[in-house]
Write a structure and sequence with these properties.
The complex is a heterodimer. Chain A has helices spanning about 1-40, 65-95, 95-110, 115-135, 140-165, 170-180, 185-210, 215-220, 240-245, 255-285; strands at about 50, 60. By secondary structure, chain A is mainly alpha-helical. Chain B has two domains: about 5-40; about 45-285, MetI-like (MetI-like fold), CATH 1.10.3720. At the A-B interface, helix 1, helix 2, helix 3, helix 4 and helix 5 of A face helix 1, helix 3, helix 4, helix 5 and helix 6 of B.
Chain lengths: ~290, ~290
C-alpha cells in the first residue's frame, strides 16, 4: 500500500503547486510594493505625472497610467459589447446546428492569434486607417488600441455568453412560445434576461483580458503618459509601461519598485474582476 | 409590443444579428489573409534558415525559430507532467473539502493573471531571486506557470469524461486505486488531456510579455548552448522588427514574414489539437 500512498502524495503536491505559484506572485509583487512605499512614502500617489527618469526629481504618479488603462478598457468594452452580444445571441438562438459548430470555433480561433501579431496588424493596417478616417496627425491613439482590444475581447465574451444563453432551461422558452410570444419576443424577453448574469460575467472576464493585455496596446496607443478622456489622444497603459521600462531599470532601484507597484495594481484589479465574475457564474450555475 | 411580432421586423433583426456575427468572422479572416498575402512572398529557405544581420533588419530568423522551439519544449517538460498530475489529483483523489476549494481558487486566479504580471513575477523570482539570469530556464518556468491552469482544467475535463463504471469495475476486481487509474482511466483520457494541453502550449508559444523580461534577447545571432543561455524568440523578434528599428518601412517584408511564421506555428498547433479532439471524441463515445 505504500506505493499507492506515495503516488497519491505526488499528485497532491503537484496540485498544490498552483497555490504555491499564486502565493509567490502575490508575495513578490506585494514585497516590492511595500518597499516602494517605505522608501518613497505615499506622497507620489497623488502626483499626476509619471517621470521615472529625471536628473532633478523622479515622479511616480501612477494616475496617468491608471486613467490610460481605464480609458482604453472602457472604450474597448463599449465597442465589443454590441458585437459580442449580437454574435452570442445569433450563434445560440438563431443559427442552425452546423452553422453554430463552424462559427463558434472560428471566433474562438481569434484567441489563438498571438497578441503581438494583432498588434502588428494594428500598427500596419488599422492605425493608418484610423488616421485617414479621422484626419489625424497620427493613428497611434487610444481609439486604435481600444479597437484592437475590442477585437481581442470579442471571442471571450461571445464564448461565455453563448454558454450562458444555452444553459437557459428549455422549458422557459417553451412556456413563452406556448402563450403566444414570437421567437424574437422570447429571445429578448425571456432568454436574454435569464442569461443576463452569465452575460455580465462574460463581459467582466473580457474586461479582465483587455486590461491585462500588453503587446497589442503597447504597439498602437502611442505611449504618452498623460491624463485624458479623449479617445483621440495618445495614452499609456499600465501594462505598456511595465513592458517598455522594465528592460532598462537597475535591479532594486526606486523605478524598478515603482513598476512592481504598477504590476500590483494590475494584479489586484484583474483578481477582483475575475473573482466577481466567477462568483456570478457559480451562483447561477453557468460555469 | 406588436412590433416584435411582426414577421418582417423579426426577419430584419435576425439579418442584422447575422450581419454582425459574420462581420466578426470577416475581420478575423481578413487579419489572417493580410498576414498570409504579405508574408508569403517574404518566406524563403534563406529567410527560415539564415541568421539575422544588422540588428535583424537583414537576413533570416533561424535563431528566433530555434529559440521559440527550445522555450516551448522546456515549457512542455515542466508544465505538462505537473498539470496532468494536478488534474489526476483533482479528478480522482480530491475530496470536496476546504483545501480542494483552495486549489481550485488558485487555478482560477492564475488563469486571470495578466501575462505582463507573469513577466514581472518571473523576473523577480526566477531571474533575480533564484539567480537563473535571463535564460531559457527562467522564461520556460514563467511560461509554465502561465499555462498551468489551462492544462489542469482541460486534463481534468478529459479525466471526468471517462465513465465511473470503468473505475468501479476495476476496483471490484481487486485492483488498487493507482492500478485502476493507470490501466482503466488514463488510456482513455490521455488523448483528451494532450489535445487540451496543446491548445495552452500553442498560446504560450505566441506570448511576448512573459518572455520579454525573463529570456528574450533583442539581437543574438547565434544558437543557445544550454538552458542558462538567452535566446531570441519569434514573438519578441516581431515586436523588435515592427517598432524598434530605425527604418521600419524598409523591413516590412521581414516583419510580415516573421508574423506569418509565428501565426502558422501557433494556429498550426491549435488546429492540430482541434482536429485531434474531434477524432478522439468519435473514437471513444460512451
Amino acid at each position: 500500500m505504500w506505493k499507492d500512498r506515495l503516488i497519491k502524495a505526488i499528485f497532491f503536491w503537484a496540485a498544490s503547486t498552483s497555490i504555491l505559484v499564486v502565493a509567490c506572485i502575490f508575495f513578490f509583487m506585494g514585497k516590492e510594493t511595500v518597499q516602494f512605499f517605505q522608501e518613497k512614502g505615499f506622497s507620489d500617489l497623488w502626483e499626476i505625472r509619471w517621470v521615472p527618469v529625471s536628473f532633478q526629481k523622479q515622479l511616480f504618479g501612477i494616475l496617468p497610467l491608471v486613467t490610460g488603462s481605464l480609458l482604453v478598457t472602457i472604450l474597448a468594452t463599449l465597442i465589443a459589447l454590441p458585437f459580442s452580444i449580437c454574435g452570442a445571441v445569433y450563434i445560440s438562438e438563431v443559427a442552425g446546428k452546423t452553422e453554430r459548430e463552424i462559427l463558434k470555433p472560428f471566433i474562438e480561433l481569434l484567441t489563438g492569434i498571438p497578441s503581438v501579431v494583432i498588434g502588428f496588424f494594428g500598427l500596419v493596417v488599422l492605425a493608418p486607417l484610423v488616421k485617414n478616417t479621422f484626419n489625424l496627425p497620427t493613428g497611434q491613439i487610444a481609439l486604435t488600441g481600444a479597437l484592437l482590444l475590442a477585437l481581442m475581447a470579442v471571442p471571450t465574451i461571445v464564448s461565455i455568453s453563448e454558454d450562458a444563453l444555452r444553459s437557459v432551461p428549455r422549458s422557459y422558452k417553451e412556456v413563452s412560445l406556448a402563450i403566444g410570444a414570437s421567437k424574437l419576443q422570447t429571445i429578448l424577453r425571456v432568454t436574454i434576461p435569464a442569461a443576463l448574469p452569465g452575460i455580465i460575467a462574460a463581459v467582466m472576464l473580457g474586461m479582465g483580458r483587455v486590461i491585462g493585455e500588453t503587446m497589442a496596446v503597447m504597439m498602437v496607443t502611442g505611449n504618452s503618459a498623460i491624463i485624458t478622456a479623449s479617445p483621440f489622444e495618445s495614452v499609456r497603459t499600465m501594462t505598456a509601461t511595465i513592458a517598455a521600462e522594465m528592460g532598462e531599470v537597475p535591479f532594486g532601484s526606486l523605478h524598478y519598485r515603482a513598476l512592481f507597484v504598477v504590476g500590483f495594481v494590475l494584479l489586484v484589479a484583474t483578481f477582483i474582476l475575475n473573482m466577481v465574475a466567477q462568483r456570478v457564474l457559480k451562483k447561477y450555475r453557468m460555469a | 409590443m406588436t412590433g416584435l411580432k411582426n414577421r418582417k421586423v423579426e426577419t430584419a433583426i435576425y439579418w442584422l444579428m447575422r450581419g454582425v456575427t459574420y462581420f466578426i468572422v470577416l475581420v478575423i479572416a481578413y487579419i489572417v489573409f493580410d498576414i498570409l498575402k504579405n508574408g508569403l512572398p517574404a518566406i524563403s529557405w534563406k529567410f527560415l534558415s539564415g541568421y539575422p544581420r544588422r540588428s535583424g533588419s537583414e537576413g533570416g530568423i533561424f535563431p528566433a525559430i530555434v529559440g521559440t522551439f527550445y522555450l516551448v519544449t522546456v515549457t512542455i517538460i515542466i508544465a505538462l507532467p505537473l498539470g496532468m498530475a494536478a488534474a489526476i489529483y483533482l479528478s480522482e483523489y480530491a475530496k470536496q473539502d476546504r483545501y480542494t476549494r483552495l486549489i481550485r481558487l488558485a487555478i482560477i486566479t492564475l488563469s486571470g493573471v495578466p501575462s505582463i504580471v507573469f513577466g514581472l513575477f518571473g523576473l523577480g523570482v526566477f531571474v533575480l531571486f533564484l539567480h537563473f539570469g535571463a535564460s531559457i530556464l527562467a522564461g520556460s518556468l514563467t511560461l509554465a506557470s502561465m499555462i498551468l491552469p489551462t492544462i489542469i482544467v482541460s486534463s481534468e475535463e478529459a479525466l471526468r469524461a471517462v465513465p465511473q463504471s470503468l473505475r468501479e469495475g476495476s476496483i471490484a476486481l481487486g485492483a488498487t486505486k493507482w492500478e485502476t487509474i493507470y490501466k482503466n482511466v488514463l488510456p482513455y483520457s490521455i488523448p483528451g488531456m494532450l489535445t487540451g494541453s496543446i491548445l495552452g502550449i500553442g498560446r504560450a508559444a505566441g506570448e511576448t510579455a512573459p518572455i520579454l523580461l525573463t529570456v528574450a534577447a533583442f539581437y543574438l545571432p547565434r544558437l543557445p548552448h544550454s538552458i542558462f543561455d538567452q535566446v531570441m524568440a519569434l514573438p519578441y523578434h516581431l515586436y523588435v522588427l515592427a517598432t524598434q528599428l530605425p527604418d521600419v518601412e524598409k523591413v516590412r517584408p521581414l516583419q510580415y514574414g516573421t508574423a506569418l511564421v509565428l501565426l502558422c506555428l501557433v494556429l498550426g498547433m491549435s488546429l492540430t489539437a482541434i482536429v485531434m479532439r474531434s477524432y478522439f471524441r468519435k473514437k471513444y463515445r460512451w
